[in-house]
Amino acid sequence: MKLVLLGTGGYYANDVRHTACLMLPEAGVVLDAGSGMFRVSDYLSTDRLDVFLTHVHLDHVLGLTYLLAVVNAEVLKRTTVHGEASKLDAIRAHLFSDAIFPVTPAFQFKSLDGATTLPDGGTVRHFPLWHPGGSVGYRLDWPSASLAYVTDTRATADAEYKEWIRGVNVLVHEAYFVDDDEQMATLTGHSCLNDAAELAASADVGLLVLVHVNPQICRDEEIDLAPARKIFANTLLGTDRMEIEF
Predict the structure, then answer these.
(1) Maximum CA pair distance of the chain?
(2) Gyration radius of the chain over CA positions
(3) Can you tell me the distance from the alpha carbon of 57 to that of 52, in angstroms, rounded to the nearest whole number?
(4) CB atoms within 10 A of CB 52
(5) CA pair distance 184, 23, nearest whole angstrom
(6) Which residue stretches of the chain have pLDDT < 70?
(7) Within a domain: residue 246?
(8) How many domains does the chain have?
(9) pLDDT at 219
């Protein structure tokens, strides 16, 4: 299975990172719909898409308005946007209001309700996360591969969602704060780099990929992974268009 990171920054796009968007081209799955969504067409290999939203802050959903231009009409009609019912209502009422985007989307909305089965034999399950306004994480399982995606929440070694991510081949986790700014992390519902590494180590994951980094940090060389790798050696900093086989 291949994972492509289409957007690895948080809050707003900068010169090197677009906002939250991951894609599994072989499965036709997109996780979050930030500004990196415009790159979906470069990797599209299915006649449908399933887009799973963690929450509806703008840096995670504004790319839904891009879909009209980046996929053809046939794929668009077979695209489903999954999310919590209240969050999907907010998208319909606000993002696609006549005053903001006066085009009715051709894709379908579907509320999360238990596990979602994918056409390729995969299963997607969601679990609650703490974040202002509410958020969810996702675990995706196939017979020989597994992935968890956790963003916009506070990582700790004993996080309540730890059992949901235990043992996955790849954990994609946010690390908005590269320094141990515990106070701001708690206030904003985001994670510190070392805390994400401690969580990965305690959950026995195979690989930790860090995303949703602070957009004010524009150059990757400014992010020192050495402290995190002392905690969990198999840690990568995600970059836009990075491809990971798992």
Answers:
(1) 51
(2) 17
(3) 14
(4) 23
(5) 29
(6) 218-221
(7) no
(8) 1
(9) 67
- The whole-number pLDDT of residue 161 equals 98
Q: CATH number for the domain including 145? A: 3.60.15.10
Q: Is 163 part of any domain? A: yes
Q: Which domain holds residue 66?
A: 2-112+121-240
Distance, CA of 161 to CA of 142 (rounded, Å):
20
Does 245 fall in a domain?
Answer: no
All residues at 6 or more sequence positions from 12 whose CB lies less than 8 Å from its CB, including other chains:
19, 59, 215
| Distance from C-alpha of 31 to C-alpha of 206, rounded to nearest angstrom | 20
Residue with token string 């992010």? 223
Per-residue pLDDT tens over the stretch 75-104: 999 999 999 999 999 999 999 999 999 999
Rounded CA separation 52/90 (Å): 15
User: Is residue 143 included in any domain, yes or no?
Assistant: yes
Q: What is the pTM of this model?
A: 0.96
Q: Specify which residues 31 forms β-bridges with.
A: 22, 52
